Amino acid sequence: MDFCSNSDSPFNCLLFDLDDTLYSSKVGIGEGVKRNIDGFLVEKCGFAENKASTLRVELFKTYGSTLAGLRVLGYDIDADDYHRNHAIECLKRLGIEDCFEQIICFETMNPNLSKVTRPDEFPIVLKPSMDAMKIALDVADVDPRRTLFLDDNVKNVTAGKALGLRTVLVGKTMKSKEADYALENINNLAQVVPEIWFSKSDGGDERITRTRSELDSILTTMSVGA
């Protein structure tokens, strides 16, 4: 899982959030996801079409995700059916599906939902809870001190910082006290965190130049909370 050039580099792993981090909120994927959720509420759960959008927002604000809220309300929703391979499809559209070693997602953090007899009896684990972050780090099997965690949500970044991760707040030009770095766009990573592109050689710093294909091969990254 080596990302940096040698053992002198401060990071050897990147841990990415997916939505609004690996892609900008302006590209339209997020709006498409919201429409899909509204459609799911109508088609699978029987809610009125004119109520779906409001319900989606209310469930997200109250329970952290629409799916978590639906299960609390007693709907036996299958997580795989609900998520519709969202992470894989996003990565394909971005053209980076081959750049990731592992995807850590809702199903990773909540592996026993299919065994629950009553949908509301099993608490769903989501970011930014510490339990969710600990599960992600255990599954990723990384050293938090040498892992760079990128997320667009301040609460998620705060949780990551509390567990010893080096943190990047994406979508902002000014970093918060919980973030070690701030990126307006993920494409600015090399400029804002230049140490991941440097190695010590013969007592000095030397810039590493890579082709696109070489960069793809070393960007061994992971996504949390897809």
From TrEMBL:
Pfam family, one: Hydrolase_like
Cross-referenced SUPFAM superfamilies: HAD-like (SSF56784)
Highest taxon of the lineage: Eukaryota
InterPro entries in the cross-refs: HAD-like_sf (IPR036412), HAD-SF_hydro_IA (IPR006439), HAD_sf (IPR023214)
PANTHER family the record matches: HALOACID DEHALOGENASE-LIKE HYDROLASE, OS03G0701200 PROTEIN
Protein known as: Uncharacterized protein
Organism: Xanthoceras sorbifolium
Organism classification: Eukaryota, Viridiplantae, Streptophyta, Embryophyta, Tracheophyta
